[in-house]
Design brief:
CATH superfamily: Metal-dependent hydrolases
Low-confidence stretches: none
CATH class: Alpha Beta
Distance between the termini: 29 Å
Largest sheet: 7 strands, mixed
Helix content: 25-40%
Structural class: alpha/beta
Number of helices: 13
Radius of gyration: 21 Å
């Protein structure tokens, strides 16, 4: 029996349904159509608003600062932005997700703190343990992630080539991607040292301290290691088009090779925005100068797998040091990823094309990539995860979220659509002004193929 009908401009994988409706039963989508809707105890009519599949953010860092309780503010930010599932990275504070027991603890935290659904990455220490890898796979991690650059010796260590090869072999036959944070340790260390010695420590030197060659060298080494195995190699963020071309070349050789795009690379230019935003825009790999157009072309050619936020909501004091080398890398993006991407796409295409592109790159593609078989589409049999975007200009204000960090590189930007409601498994968790669901509604979603 239909319990809820949601009306609006329905964005499906096959096209737009004007004057459409979505029928919900038991948290699932029972039917989608236009014209007369099924009878239901409750109908919510959003008029000309877009009804998109809830976004699946394939790269978030909920626990990197306050540990697993970080699930609460992170998932609240998600639903405010129309994100209904986050895929959380394993580099939590103080212990990364390297064993089944740590994963189980994180799952308990999801069921205690989250208001949207959560899938999880696993990782390995510098000396991988095959039994721990198997334990994480058995408990449904959707991917593994490692780094070629050490951000912290324990929480975010560098995994050398021998250990990487061990992990790649262990993942053969599992279908799980192995994601890489792709920066070369020695190149970054040398470039940073040279700039510091020259007194070049202001924000505009961040890109030079982690030059594209560091990114490309790490990417190429990783792909060549993967080419000697049958594993799936994935680059979690590429900031220059040459990196995506490199991934395509390996894919053409028959390797399972993929790469994702972070939304900030499509919205910011280091030459224009770094002097203005300074440490607020520091991410690794850096936002580059004069790359936005080329990266949009990469996306439109289908060379990236999906778009993510790489959300990391550091407190403001960690982002405002005079030296860019003493500023934490990462920035919040969950609240803005969906409206920011839609707005930027609509400047290049029609509104309908922008809606379809958004639904593909921010929902359907990441859901399929991570094996989340009930997520990412408005179609019968899928979870009733729906983001409602009102077609109206609004000025983004990071301070509107009382649980957020109170700052954003996107502060003051004007978006052409506004998240006005978010449904997770048929329940409205955000009503346009505030989160309406209590912590603990979110569920851990294991990989299912």
């Amino acid at each position: 029996m239909t319990e809820l009908v949601i009306k609006g401009r329905v964005v499906t994988a096959s096209g737009l349904i004007e004057n459409g409706w979505v029928a919900v039963a038991d948290g699932m989508i029972a039917a989608v159509g236009t014209g007369k809707a099924p009878a239901a105890p409750e109908t919510q009519d959003f008029g000309a608003a877009w009804l998109l599949p809830g976004a699946v953010d394939g790269q978030t860092h909920a626990g990197s600062q306050i540990g697993f309780p970080g699930m609460a503010p992170t998932t609240k930010a998600a639903v405010i932005g129309g994100v209904t599932t986050i895929v959380d990275m394993p580099y939590d504070h103080p212990i990364p997700v390297t064993t089944a027991s740590v994963l189980q603890e994180k799952v308990r935290a999801i069921h205690q703190h989250a208001v949207c659904d959560v899938a999880l990455y696993g990782t390995v220490p510098p000396t991988p343990d095959l039994s721990d890898i198997r334990g994480l796979v058995d408990l449904g991690v959707c991917a593994f992630k490692i780094s070629s650059f050490e951000a912290h010796p324990d929480r975010f260590p560098r995994i050398d080539n021998a250990a990487t090869l061990t992990l790649l072999h262990a993942l053969e036959g599992t279908s799980l991607p192995l994601g890489l944070h792709n920066e070369d340790q020695e190149i970054v260390a040398h470039a940073t040292k040279t700039l510091k010695e020259a007194g070049k420590t202001s924000a505009e030197y961040h890109s030079q301290s982690r030059p594209p060659v560091a990114e490309l060298a790490a990417t190429g080494t990783f792909l060549e290691l993967a080419a000697s195995t049958g594993a799936h190699a994935h680059i979690v963020h590429i900031s220059v088009p040459e990196g995506f071309e490199m991934v395509r070349a390996y894919r053409d050789r028959g390797l399972q090779a993929t790469a994702e795009m972070c939304v900030h690379y499509l919205l910011f230019d280091a030459d224009i925005d770094m002097p203005r935003l300074k440490g607020l825009l520091k991410v690794n790999p850096p936002v580059r100068p004069r790359q936005m157009e080329a990266l949009w072309c990469v996306l439109e050619e289908g060379l990236c797998s999906f778009v993510s936020s790489d959300h990391s909501a550091w407190p403001l004091e960690r982002k405002t040091n005079d030296s860019i080398f003493d500023v934490a890398a990462g920035m919040p993006g969950l609240e803005v990823m969906l409206p920011a991407f839609f707005t930027a796409a609509a400047k290049r295409k029609s509104d309908v094309e922008a809606a379809l592109l958004t639904a593909s790159y921010l929902a359907d593609r990441p859901a399929r990539f991570f094996g989340l078989s009930k997520k990412g589409r408005i179609a019968p049999g899928f979870d009733a995860d729906i983001a409602v975007l009102a077609p109206e200009n609004y000025v983004y204000d990071a301070n509107a979220n009382p649980d957020g960090p109170g700052w954003s590189a996107y502060q003051g930007m004007i978006f052409s659509v506004r998240p006005s409601a978010t449904f997770v498994r048929g329940r409205k968790v955000f009503g346009g002004a505030a989160v309406t669901e209590t912590p603990g509604y979110g569920r851990y979603i294991p990989r299912r193929g």
